[in-house]
């Protein structure tokens, strides 16, 4: 991290600032933290979430692929098959609806979204390959 990218803890703004809205959903920022407020059915909330955070979701997906997928060892398509698909199939309807809404807004299919959602497993697989991968939470609900 460059000095420019570092956060000056004393300069962090602590008031909630609205950044964007989509339908009944709102994206606000508190310092460097995104705060998303969603309202409606799970499908509607998925659409709101996907629309408001599309760029970040795509960036997370691209970073996961770059950092944790070695196509010579295990391709991303195989990862979707062994991680994303079983996880997606095991979810209740409300989570599938949420994924469907996010998928509509981002263009990422639901199996890929469920793979991204299971990023912890990607980290564990990377560790088995000898990478010194670290895990942090990407988002919190």
Structural account:
The protein has five helices and three strands. With 141 residues, the chain is an alpha+beta fold. It has a domain at 41-128. Strands 1-2-3 form a three-stranded antiparallel beta sheet. A hairpin with a 2-residue loop joins strand 1 and strand 2. Helix 2 packs across helix 4. The longest helix has 27 residues, at 42-68. The chain is flat. Residues 133-141 have low confidence and may be disordered.
What would you report as the Rg, rounded to the nearest angstrom?
17 Å
Structural class: alpha+beta
The biggest sheet amounts to: 3 strands, antiparallel
State mean pLDDT (0 to 100 scale).
82
Give the topology, please.
Blueprint: E1 16-22, E2 25-30, E3 33-37, H1 42-68, H2 76-89, H3 93-106, H4 110-117, H5 119-128
Antiparallel strand pairs: 1-2, 2-3
Question: What's a concise summary of this model?
Answer:
This protein has 141 residues and is α+β, with helices and mostly antiparallel strands.
Key attributes of the depicted protein:
141 residues; alpha+beta; 3 strands; 52% helix; disordered C terminus
